Amino acid sequence: HGPHQQDPTADQHELIEPVFQFxxxxxxxxxxYQGTIEGEEPLAPWKVTSVYRYxxxxxxxxxxxxxxxxx
Length: 71
What we know:
With 71 residues, this protein is mainly β. The chain contains no helices and four strands.
């Protein structure tokens, strides 16, 4: 799987140090993602930024960026 696709085989998903920035009907969420598969080394971590817009009573995803964290 490439860095822009979440590994569906991960058993556990961890959002590390999430930060929420609110601007009226927009929220920007930034965090580090760590997926793990039971009994194996953790998958490469990602830095993720997601943008949501509140409309018609629901939060809608309008943009997301994922980047593999180089170690």
